[in-house]
Amino acid sequence: MKPLKRYQYERYAILCNLAYPTTFNHTLYGFDKNGRHEITDRWGRTIIRILWGKESEVVVVFKGSQSLWDWLINLACFPKKIRTGTKWCRVHWGYYSLLEQSSKTTGIKPNPYISEAMRAELLQASENNHQQNGLTLYQQIEKVLLPQIKQGKKITFTGHSSGGAMAILVAHRLYQQQPTAIKRIVTFGQPATGCWSFKQDYPLAKRTYRICCDLDIVTFLPPIPFMFWHVGKMLWLHNGKIYEDTPTLARLYRSIVSWLLRPISYHYMNKYIRNKDFFDKH
């Protein structure tokens, strides 16, 4: 497994963060003006952005939970049996169902608080979605990616929270048809996606990076021990360091202890040394 470089981490983290605003200027991040496709959920909200430019990489960004309904999906954790080639495995029903929904076209109403350029961008996305009605989210993703793959481009999937779980499922499914097309998968604050059978069948472990930050409770979901399992390499950002593949129980224990001792830890000299630059300004 090739290490995830810092500039790659920062790039995907920024794109995941920018998945939440209604719109953003994707050309500022090296993508072509027309290198963008948006996919909406059943309520007409943008949930997936596919971005590409002159480089050989296409980035598929999945948005995480936004509403109460989205958070309830995390609780729909009964196993869903799916077929992969000649095998069967079980995954989280809630995240699987997100990819099986169809988009809904939404009209763009006049809004005095947005610019004409932004309105045109939203209208274009709405027209694109109208053409995709009747297709599941996965089918829409595939329809956009296959022409890019035929041009020799590699696909990177990234997402935050439940968006990370969706990225894992889409990468796993696309691999069945295009095993050489996937470059990497990078997720942030992702809950577990499948059962042990899925972990055993997942072919992209060496290309998958799962970023966890301190005591992010979502990364411990679903809260059913030994039923759901994570895949890929875990990079845990904790106390200013990066730990690789720390066992779940050890990570939970260290996080709780760190949280309980935090008031005391501020008494240590390294905290004072860390802030030495403050005095250079006075």
TrEMBL record:
CDD domains: Lipase_3. It comes from the Bacteria. InterPro entries: AB_hydrolase_fold, Fungal_lipase-type, Sec_MonoDiacylglyc_Lipase. Residues 59-224 form the Fungal lipase-type domain. Pfam families: Lipase_3. GO terms for biological process: lipid metabolic process. This is Lipase-related protein. The lineage of its organism: Bacteria, Pseudomonadati, Pseudomonadota, Gammaproteobacteria, Vibrionales.
